[in-house]
Amino acid sequence: MELTPLRYFLRAADRENFTRAAEDLKVSQPALSRAVAGLERELGRPLFERDGRTVKLTDAGRTFRTQAAKIVGLADDARAELVDDGRTGAVRVAIIPTLAPYLLPGLLRSFVEIRPEAEVRVAETVTAECVRKVRAGESDLALLTTPVPDPALHVERLYEEELLAALPAGHRLAETPTLTVGDLQSEPFVLLGEAHCLSEEALSFCRRSGVQPILLERTSQLATVKALVAAGHGVSLIPAAAAAEDPGIAYRRLTGDRPTRTVVAAWDQERYVSKLTKAFLDVLRGRRAG
Predict the structure, then answer these.
(1) What is the spatial distance between Cα 96 and Cα 22, in angstroms, rounded to a whole number?
(2) What is residue 79's three-state secondary structure?
(3) Max Cα separation, the chain?
(4) Which of 1, 164, 238, 268 is the most exposed place for a label (fewest CB within 10 A)?
(5) What is the C-alpha separation between 285 and 67, in angstroms, rounded?
(6) Is the pTM of this model over 0.85?
(7) Using N-to-C axis directions, what is the helix angle for 100-114 and 275-289, rounded to 10°?
(8) The pLDDT value given to residue 161
(9) 3-82: what fold?
(10) Domains 86-158+263-289 and 161-257 share a fold
C-alpha cells in the first residue's frame, strides 16, 4: 500500500468532495478518483458513499481513516526527524484572525533573531480549521483561545487578555465613571460571525453576567466590527491588543467581573515536534514571561 493514495483518501475524507480535495493537493480530480478507487479494490470494500458531488465515509471508511492517518503521520514524522537540524526548514503556524495581527509581528521578529535561516508559514483561519490543520499534520501548532474543541491536542496556556467595551465616541456611556456589563443590556451589539471564537467568548461572558445582548450585526473581520462601532451601529467587546487609538471609538474597561480570553498554543503530542517548533514555542513562552 503506497502513501500517495492514502494522502488522497485522507484529504477527500476531510473535504467530503473529490474536486476540492484534488484542488488542495494540486492534482486532477480523475487522478484522485482513480487512486481512491484503487484503494477500495485493494481493501475489497467501499470507503465512500458517493452522492453527486458530495462524498461521505462509509463505516469501513471511518475505520480505515484512523489507521491511514497513523500510517501517513508516522512516515511524515520519520522524514521530519531525519532532516531536522534545528536551524533550517519551516515552522507551520495556524492562528485565529483576532490574534494574528497583534501577536505575530513581534513574535516573528523575535524568532528570526534566533533562527535567521528558518521559515515561518502562517495560516490565518478560524478555530475549527486551526484544529483540523494541526490534527491533519498541515500545521505544527495552532495559536488560538480556549476552549480548544479537540481533547486530543496538548494545550499550553500563554496569557490572559482582557476584553474592553468598545463604544461609539460620544455615546452616553463613554464618559461614565464606572461601566458594567449590565449597563450594556439595552445596547445593540456588533460581533464577529459564529465561526469566530471571540463572539462566543463575548456572548458567554454576557450570559454569565445575566445579560442577553441584542445582536445587531455579525461580520467576518474585526476591523469591520470596529468600523461599525465607530459609525454608531452598536457596541462590542474588543481584545485589549486590538484597542488602538481608533477614531470614533471610546474603549472602556468594565468594572467588577471583567471579560477575558485565554490565549493558548496547541499541538499534537502524538506527532513529531521539530526542534524549530520547540524553539518557536520557547519564544512564545519568553514573551509570556515578559
Answers:
(1) 25
(2) helix
(3) 72
(4) 1
(5) 34
(6) no
(7) 120
(8) 93
(9) Arc Repressor Mutant, subunit A (1.10.10)
(10) yes
Report pLDDT for 283.
Answer: 95
pLDDT in tens, 34-76: 999 999 999 999 999 998 788 999 999 999 998 898 888 888 8
- Sign, CA torsion 92/94/95/97: positive
Say which range, 50-64, 75-89, 112-126, 239-253, has the weakest mean pLDDT: 75-89
Determine the CATH number of domain 161-257: 3.40.190.10
CB within 8 Å of 43: residues ≥ 6 apart: 60, 64
What residue spans define the domains of the chain? 3-82, 86-158+263-289, 161-257
pLDDT digits (tens, 9 = 90+) for 206-223: 777 777 765 666 777 888
Nearest-angstrom CA–CA distance, 227 and 220:
12
* Cell of residue 267, nine digits: 499541538
For residue 39, give Cα distances in angstroms to 64, 75, 239, 267: 11, 18, 48, 30
What does the block give as the cell for 228?
461599525
Structural class in CATH, domain 86-158+263-289: alpha beta
